[in-house]
Amino acid sequence: MTATPARRPTGFYPVFLNLRGRRAVVVGGGAVAEQKVLGLLDAGAHVTVVSRETTPRLEDLAAQGAIEVRRRPYRRGDLADAWLAIAATDDRAVNDAVWAEAEEEGIPLNAVDDLDHCSFIAPAIHREGDVTVAVSTSGKSPALAVRLRDRIAKLIGPAEARLCDLLGELRRELGARVPDARARTELWYRIVDSDVVEFVRRGDMGGARRRIDHLVGGTVASARPQPNRERGIVYLVGAGPGDPGLITVKGLEILRSADVVVYDRLVHPALVDQAPSGAERVFVGKHARGGGGGRSPEQTEIDELLIERARRGRVVVRLKGGDPFVFGRGAEECQALRAAGIAVQVIPGVTAAIAAPGAAGIPVTHRRYASAFAVVTGHQCEGASALDWEALARMPTLVVLMGLSALPEITARLLAHGADPDTPAAVVASGTLPAQRVVVGTIATIAALVTEAELDPPATVVVGEVVRVGRLVRERAPRRAAAAVRP
Ligand SMILES: C[S@@+](CC[C@H](N)C(=O)[O-])C[C@H]1O[C@@H](n2cnc3c(N)ncnc32)[C@H](O)[C@@H]1O
Questions:
Q1: Reduced to 3 states, what is the DSSP secondary structure of residue 133?
Q2: Does the active-site annotation cover 286?
Q3: What is the model's pTM?
Q4: Does the C-beta of 456 come closer than 6 Å to ligand 1?
Q5: Which of 243, 299, 401 to mutate to test the pocket of ligand 1 (most atoms within 8 A of CB)?
Q6: 285 — phi, psi (to 5°)?
Q7: Which CATH fold would you assign to the domain 231-350?
Q8: Which residue, by CA, sits nearest to atom 27 of ligand 1?
Q9: Which of 127, 259, 284, 424, CA to CA, is 20 to 30 A from 375?
Q10: Where are the domains of the chain?
């Protein structure tokens, strides 16, 4: 028999204390002490402050009878009856004395900024209703803990707090309906991983309850929940222009609750990774970023796939590059889904039409140079074109998506319809991504410059005086010297 190796202590033991009605003593009366007192009062503690001087806020609280203040220096015995103590002074000798008493009496003590005199430390917290997130760095860097807390806080808002309340209300009922503890645990995860929070976010608490009810119904009917037809929904989510950080917060939340993700060629793999590990992933582009081959599914096949999965009760995320409604066939998918009676919701995204020029420092509008812009597809620029080229040639800013291969025809048409050959033009390839490249020229030169630079798609063309603004931005930036092509 081998002995279990001894576990090495790894740090502080995290807990949430119930201080309601219990005495807490704070030694010190400055701004830090004030913050500690407010936190203790929020937790329902009876607070005693020991300090000759106190902040105006602490004075107010004392005048209202919300706290007791001993207006004198700390003396031994002040921790009598205390359940917890905080030393918020910058006097090490005082901390030493408070620590000695606390240790002798077995009272947990936190001495602010003095780890040697701490039997507990306070994490950086974020509270939203009854949801509390606490971040600790074991006292090594409170500033880092605060910043990490801030990042996490962005994921937890009023909807999560309301969902927490709802789940709290349902706890007893669910215990009775699903007596098997294991099935119940699985069910709780299924509920919180589902799109219930979306109903809560829309303020549809009735819908949220019905959704939970369906999930519970499935669990009660069998060990595995039966897919529920009514539950099926398709979210058309804009994945943004390339950089995975440019999806919306809402889009990301929905993606993280998907049962099925159907994604395009231009969607960054890091975003597809955000779907739950058990989610089905279906690639419907010809080839993914960076490789692969194969036949591109017809639009009708994609529509059928979305409809079929939704009918099986799945939460389907149709992840599309940029914004789903900008040259993304999002509208057609929406129509097909609606015609099939499938619930569909659109989560807009950041379109490459604006973000790719923006990432190159080119604004599509400018108070001085451009009070309007048009976005066209390059596919409309080849052969017989239905576009009004005279109007486009006069447009202050013209943005062309999918226009890389047709660039010589696009510039020729603009010139034929009266555009000035010296009008600045730029092409931004792989905008917002590390591989971003920008070629800058004029209507007369841009097509040749792009051929010379061997730019790869995806690329966005932008024509107009605004390109000059982008150029100024780049010329001023250090290590970004003016050049026709830059990585
Ligand atoms: C089929 S359209 C889809 C547009 C997408 N719905 C949007 O709103 O960005 C694809 C075209 O968008 C442009 N595009 C997409 N991602 C890009 C990127 N990272 N940089 C430059 N252009 C991009 C290219 O013109 C590409 O051919």
A1: strand
A2: yes
A3: 0.60
A4: no
A5: 401
A6: -105, 170
A7: Cobalt-precorrin-4 Transmethylase; domain 1 (3.40.1010)
A8: 402
A9: 284
A10: 23-122, 158-226, 231-350, 353-486
